[in-house]
DNA sequence: TATGAATGAGGGTTCATTCAT
DNA sequence: GATGAATGAACCCTCATTCAT
């Protein structure tokens, strides 16, 4: 499976935008100049590679999905367990080079329905292809986990996916709350809760 | 417990904004003129009641929290079960007059960290008072549910809250996806999954 | 000579506006609400007596001119000297009830040419009548002062008027500078300089 | 003495604003769009060079002061007379390139006390430096004029300054009156009166 | 190719004026 | 008559986009 490649400037733009998103900025509040500055390039240069501000976002999300799919691909072994994948994923989230995984939901969340719909339009097929790829890996992990008793056999793939996404969504919310509401929650207890929610809800 | 009352114009503004938010618009993309139009009043009139666009949002969120707390208060009986509360809540979400409950998370989600922090500043004490009130009801329900076997006694209140909020967050995401990605998910199956996620993860 | 009379509300409006002007506010920066508040009446009430904000100004200036003319009329005696008139005038400026005389130039100065031209349009004849009246008194004083040696007989009335208005204009500027530049000038030395400028320039 | 230099766009903005001010517009009545149009640049461009409308004014006044100080510097010779300086200055006022000298007092006059105080804040030190420079030239001229008998030795510098500023202020008023009241005064007679007022009041 | 100076459409906000009470 | 709640035109300012260099 060959992933699309990007020029250094494009990647700089992606990482610049993701950096800003990770800081908790709504997309509307991120200025094109901010992205250019964060990327270390000129504002005009962005328009050599992208057709609009929205396009930068669209491509960034595609790039991020692709990075994620690539990462998942490497994690897949014959009899991988849900437990192992999750642990590795949550650990990965703390590393700088996995910024995209962390920032993507933030970016996505800060979009209105209409913006999301428009984004889908642009790179629809490519995005769909990547999502299908990830769904494949996902199915593989779910199947293995049903065999090893981590997941109740009666549960559908859709429910498993829903449980995991909800737990991760809640995890991100908790982290944000730490940022803006200054409640005293440790990162580790957040991770524990996320994992517990998934395992408890999927166990037989 | 006496809740703050609002003038008709203020409530019109609240509902106008919530209407727009329920439509999936990021706050930055909602124009003051839009709010005025949705509220059926003049743009200038908004500034007779609110000091700024941000203030409209801040007050709307407070109003919504208050509405929610009032509603919860009515649901609480001596030995209420988690099951009953959740069922009633999910049903309520489908009614027009419960628009606020549905739209609030959307509004909140579409804010940047900084915006959220600033909002907290304005009506901090009032918001905190309402949140404390709701935490009280919550604790009551959790206690009852531990007694009647719905919730594992070993689980902390914090984890229970996290599980419920994650499930509801995922539920809202799913509903949104129905809107923008047009996947074929029925409303009922969404509700089922949300309830299942909660019950499966909290059961002993 | 019968002066026009005004209702209490009108006079309240005049004095309200003059009060604000004496505070050094440009007319554009004075809001209708400010005038209403300063006058102790409702905003809507102003529009019962005046057709517009500009009209309030126009009438206020006319009222002030008239007050001034009335005051001058009382000062005129058969062989009044320039010295006596000036001294009395400068003293009067310090009293509260002579606020109009002090505030008028401020109001006038803060108008653009166009605004001034439009003002002139409204009450043109009345204003002209009052100005003519004052010119009459002025001529009388100048004539007397030429006789008693205060004014060089060779100087025209126009030059005398110009000298006095310039001196008073400079006097007001100096007072203002005391307000905003905080230079250490005493009120008395300001008055001295204004009188000196007039007497030195008009003396034979 | 090195004066600050400005970019062409800045100078265009200065001259645009001065042009409008020379037309007798109160600063509050001059719109940013007007300045942009008068300067021959886009509205947005102004905000690349100035932080706000007030900033444009502040910088314009500073620029004008500086231009004036530069001009004065060139006029100063060893034994310059007040008569010569004044004559040259009044002549200069009639030339297009001396627009700033003519427009500055108009701009300044049309500000409220508060606006003036705020302006002072921004470029306080630079403005003070220029004013000090001009005071220096002024003192030089006054000293010479006392020696050559134009100015009464008993008169203080402050009084001399006050006399000149008052006369010029009255001169500008007269010119304005020509504009808006259409009295039949020739430019030359205005100049004559201004000079006479100064010489008569300062002579021994 | 890469840039950032220049732009103007569009947003939040103010405030003179109206009109129902 | 007296009021102030309601209004929308018009302001200042922002920022995505263009284009000459």
From TrEMBL, chains A, B, C, D:
It comes from the Bacteria. Residues 7-68 form the HTH tetR-type domain. Residues 31-50 bind DNA. Keywords: DNA-binding, Repressor, Transcription, Transcription regulation. Pfam families: TetR_N. The keyword DNA-binding applies. The keyword DNA-binding applies. This is TetR/AcrR family transcriptional regulator. It comes from Butyricicoccus intestinisimiae.
């Amino acid at each position: 499976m060959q992933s699309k490649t990007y020029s250094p400037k494009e990647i700089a733009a992606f990482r610049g935008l993701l950096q800003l998103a990770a800081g908790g900025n709504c997309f509307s509040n991120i200025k094109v100049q901010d992205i250019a500055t964060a990327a270390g390039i000129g504002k005009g240069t962005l328009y050599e590679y992208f057709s609009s501000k929205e396009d930068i976002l669209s491509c960034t999300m595609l790039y991020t999905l692709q990075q994620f799919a690539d990462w998942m691909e490497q994690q897949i072994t014959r009899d991988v367990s849900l437990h192992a994948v999750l642990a590795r994923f949550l650990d990965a989230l703390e590393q700088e080079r996995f910024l995209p995984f962390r920032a993507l939901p933030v970016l996505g969340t800060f979009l209105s329905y209409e913006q999301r719909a428009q984004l889908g339009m642009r790179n629809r097929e490519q995005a769909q292809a990547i999502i299908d790829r990830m769904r494949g890996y996902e199915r593989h992990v779910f199947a293995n986990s049903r065999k090893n008793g981590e997941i109740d056999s009666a549960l559908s793939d859709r429910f498993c996916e829903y449980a995991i996404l909800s737990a991760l969504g809640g995890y991100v919310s908790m982290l944000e709350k730490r940022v803006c509401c200054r409640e005293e929650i440790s990162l580790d207890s957040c991770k524990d809760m996320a994992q517990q929610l998934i395992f408890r809800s999927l166990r037989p």
